[in-house]
Amino acid sequence: MTQSAAGRVMSPDSLSRIERAVPPISNGKSTRSSRVPAIVCLLVWGLFGSSSLPAVDFGDDVPKTSYPAIGQVQIAKAITEKGPEWASFGTGTLIAPDLVLTAAHVVANAPTPRHVFVKFESQDKAIGCIAYRSNPGYLSSLSAGLSDEERNWLKSTNNWENAAADIALLKLERPIPRIETYPLAAEYPAPQAPLTVVGYGLTADKAFDFKRRSGELKSLRIHNNMVLVVSGNSKNQKTDHGDSGGPLLIRRGDKLEIVATVQGMPDLSNRLSGLTSDEWTAMTAVPYIKPWADAMIADLAQVKLNAKQPVAFIRRQQTEDPQLAMTLRQFQALVKVNDQNVSKNFVRLFVRGLNEPVPLDVCQSLKKNLGLSDNAFYPPLPAPAK
Q1: β strands within the chain, DSSP E
Q2: pLDDT tens-digit readout, 314-368
Q3: Which distant-in-sequence residues (6+ apart) come within 8 Å of 277 by Cβ?
Q4: How sure is the predictor about 233, in pLDDT bands with cuts at 50, 70 and 90?
Q5: Among 2, 1, 4, which residue's Cα sits nearest to residue 218?
Q6: Are 244 and 105 within 8 A, CB to CB?
């Protein structure tokens, strides 16, 4: 989340547990807290307990015309005739006219890519997504499929690798015109470099007003592929729930670059001597994930909707699965779609869902060969022609 304060970030996992009673308003929800707390707790408040998160405070309001590439990522748990039923939200940044950078945990609860939307201040309506890619190193620590020992390890402060991979790229259904995008930084920030964070999140009284706020941060050092930052002013600015996925920006020349994304680490004070929990935060370093991101940018360029080729989306049946949805190629490598003798044991792989549209004929083949129910697809598959 692009916030002006190093702070905690709330994960979509926690958001879905909180089950926002307030639906996103017309100007869209973003993943940034209305106040930017100084410590980023990317893995949710529901996960680690509210006592581990500092108060959200001191965020500066961002005018609608500023940072136009930073929007709110909205996750729907269902889409009905009345419209989306919202479950959680986060923050994302446009890095190309049709690509948004956010945190992997922000989309972890999305049944399909079609349940993910991004709302920019310059747009009247939220734009839908058609595909996403999440870093394969990211595992959800809320997974019900993990043993207590495994889950405790994921929650531990030793799990830097998992935190450093908390990143995702969203492919929009259409390009967003006339918005200057931010490039991914290839170099880490130097110590003491001034940084800016922006996002949508909680207000000081723990409410959501769906407004962007920013804060001033300062680079501390790089630690295990994470960018450690401290507040850049006397306000002790921070991030909180809703800021997840937002960008940490650095100015190089006359351009802003994304050097990190808001995610968060719980209880790192025992690893960082001399700093209190409300003075620092850890964020996913963009230079670390840039080779993967560059490859996924090229991959997503091939994902396009064609009116002549009907598609459907395969639902993520269990969002608690430790790994996020896979691509069609990955799924076909695990389950030979045309193999009539495919083991029913492979059906369990299907609960992860696919993170991209699937041609209708392939969906029909999957349904037939694996015995899948109509509920596995969005939208429901039409009856096969007789």
Answers
A1: 60-61, 70-80, 83-96, 99-102, 116-119, 127-134, 168-172, 194-202, 208-223, 226-231, 247-252, 255-261, 280-285, 311-314, 358-359, 377-378
A2: 999 877 777 789 898 888 777 665 455 555 556 666 778 999 999 999 999 888 8
A3: 39, 54, 267, 268, 269
A4: confident
A5: 4
A6: yes
Is the distance from CB of 255 to CB of 51 less than 8 angstroms? Answer: no
Report the C-alpha gap between 313 and 295 in whole angstroms: 23
What stretch of H or E contains 150?
Answer: helix 148-155
Phi, psi of 199 (to 5 degrees): 180, 175
pLDDT digits (tens, 9 = 90+) for 267-311: 455 556 666 655 677 889 999 999 999 999 999 999 999 888 999
Residue boundaries of the structural domains of the chain? 12-295, 311-378
Considering the entire predicted model, what is its pTM?
A: 0.80
**pLDDT attached to residue 25:** 32
Top-tier CATH class for 12-295: mainly beta
What residues pair up with 250 in beta bridges, in sequence order? Answer: 257
CB 124 within 8 A of CB 26: yes
Which backbone phi and psi does 132 adopt, to 5 degrees? -150, 160
CB-based contact 15:88 (threshold 8 Å):
yes
Q: Whose CA is closest to 182, among 123, 244, 258, 119?
A: 258
